[in-house]
Amino acid sequence: MISAIASGQGKTTVTAAIARHFTQQGKRVRVFKTGADFIDPMMLQQACGGPVLSLDLWLVGLPACRALLMEAAQQADLVLIEGVMGLYDGTPSSADLANAFGVPVLAVIDASAMAQTVGAVALGLRDFGPVQLAGVVANRIASDGHLSMIQSALRDIPVLASLRRQDQALPERHLGLVLPDEVGGIDEILNRMAADVSLDINAWNAIPRMHFTDDEVTFVEVPQLLAGKCIAIARDASFAFLYPANLLALEQMGAELRYFSPLANQAIPVQADALYLPGGYPELHAETLSQAQDWLQSLAAFQQARKPIYAECGGMISLVDCLIDQAGKVWNMAGLLSGTITMQKRLAALGMQSWMTSSGELRGHTFHYSTFDSPLAASAHTVKQKTQEKGEVIYQVGSLQATYFHAYFPSNYAAAARLFLTENRS
After folding, report:
1. What is the pTM of this model?
2. Which residues are designated catalytic?
3. Is CB count within 10 Å lower at the N or C end of the chain?
4. With 0-12 CB in 10 A as exposed, 13-18 as middle and 19+ as buried, what is 197?
5. CATH number of the domain bearing residue 333
6. What is the mean pLDDT of residues 327-351?
7. Residues 391 and 254 placed together within one structural domain of the fold
8. Residues 6 or more apart from 334 whose CB is under 8 A from it?
């Protein structure tokens, strides 16, 4: 488990650097991301060359987390889990996840503005829980002398790795990192990070190994609820926020998946029985989307045919009457949902939520920087995990369902399947 005292310490950078380093050494590396995240996993997938799935005791569940870890351990030489926020933040936290399976923790500490105090931070992170702290990754080191001061203050905690200050960091925007496909020379950046990370191989090899047995793991038999169905999925820079586990869940339920790009003005595939519009960055591509006539015409025809449409967050944004971007410019969108989306600089909502459907609880999360002013009545609301208060609105117009809520399909296969069936209702 690669964690830290807070966000912004460099967890993703360190995880990506270590993953790329060992991949270059010929090791099979699997990486997971704690919590609900789409963007960091894309960067981590670029670093390790394989899909990056979510591990979270609430969103995914302990039995499923155990099964995913066991499967990864059977396939890989090294399994890395990037934590979320600070080590003890959230309920459940990254520390809870690590302790649930006895996973040793590496604490990433931004040492750019401290030296010996790193020792106090590391001791606090280890003992507060406690957790099995395998060592520290000293990030943003200025010099060998700086690193030496840190090592002298850590007492019995080893510095497993260190990383010098990077001249070129992974670029970010309002929802997190910039998507890997949009970063020129991303592999060169990752290769340089891998070359710059300094590992203490002896200390690394001393990290306790994990052991799983088959009798500890329960595997779920996925019902074939979407057998014979073809689901069209928008997939490009505007619609990029997809859990790999969601796509796998749809396929395991028997669906055929067909991808297309609204940004490239591609129409919805004619074979599609249902449409999935995931989240992403439509606000950054509003002009292109508003002029993509083949996409817009196929969308209108799809709704008129009363075929199921499920749109979440960015997908919902693409369907409203108009979008006001952060510069105040107004763009006409698809017009399938009455109302206006307004982008803002401050966070509008963040956190785990669940949708109580007729097929049971469907878990997920919300994370957006916009608000939706609409005359439409809510067909349902999600529930906030922490407070049990009302969360995001679920809108329904005919066979279209739309919401800011991002659903994690494996949390309830039956509820997820209903989103893409003709009789879909909340």
Report:
1. 0.91
2. 313
3. C
4. buried
5. 3.40.50.880
6. 95
7. yes
8. 296, 299, 300, 318, 319, 320
CB distance 87 to 116 below 8 Å: no
Residue-range definition of the domain harbouring residue 46: 2-216
Q: What SS3 class is residue 348?
A: coil
Tokens 């950054």 identify what position?
284
* Exposure of 134 in the CB half-sphere (CA atoms within 13 A): 25
Whether 201 and 295 map to the same domain: the answer is no
- Backbone phi and psi for residue 96, each to the nearest 5 degrees, phi listed first: -60, -40
- What lies within 8 Å, CB to CB, of 331 at 6+ separation is 286, 287, 289, 290, 322, 323, 324, 325
Instruction: Assign residue 89 the CATH number of its domain.
Output: 3.40.50.300
Boundary of a domain, candidates 186, 216, 246:
216
Q: Are the CB atoms for 297 and 333 separated by under 8 Å? A: no
Please spell the DSSP secondary structure of 176-244, one letter per residue: EEPPGGGSTTHHHHHHHHHHHEEE-HHHHHTSPPP---GGG--PPPPP-TTTT-EEEEE-STTS-B--H
State the residue for tokens 């003709």.
422
**For residue 425, is pLDDT > 50?**
no
Q: pLDDT of 152-178, one tens digit each?
A: 999 899 999 999 876 655 655 455 556
Longest dimension (CA), the chain: 70
* Whether residues 133 and 237 fall in one domain: no
The last residue of one of the domains, among 165, 188, 216, is 216
Rounded to an integer, the average pLDDT of 77-84 is 96
Residues 177 and 325 in one domain: no
Q: pLDDT tens digit string along 14-48?
A: 999 999 999 999 999 999 999 888 888 888 999 99
